[in-house]
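Q: Hi! Curious about what DUF1918 domain-containing protein looks like structurally. Here's the sequence.
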Amino acid sequence: MKAAIGDKLVVEGTRHGETRRIGVIVELRHPDGSPPYVVRWMDADHESLVFPGPDAHVMTERHMPAG
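A: Let's find out. The predicted structure is below.
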C-alpha cells in the first residue's frame, strides 16, 4: 500500500454494525508512501497514527469522483 498526502484512507467495517471510516492522510512517516499514516478522520474531527490492515485501502485523486 502506497499513499500521498491528501489521499483518502478507507477502512471498511468488518463486523456486523461497524461502518466504513474515511480519513484524509495528512502526514507520511516514510518517504516512499508506505504505512503508517497520520490520518484526520472525517467523522470525528481528530487525527491518529494508522497502521492499515487488510480491511483498508487508499483512494487517490484519480480514484475519487469529480465534484
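A: A fun detail: The CA atoms of residues 45 and 61 lie 21 Å apart.
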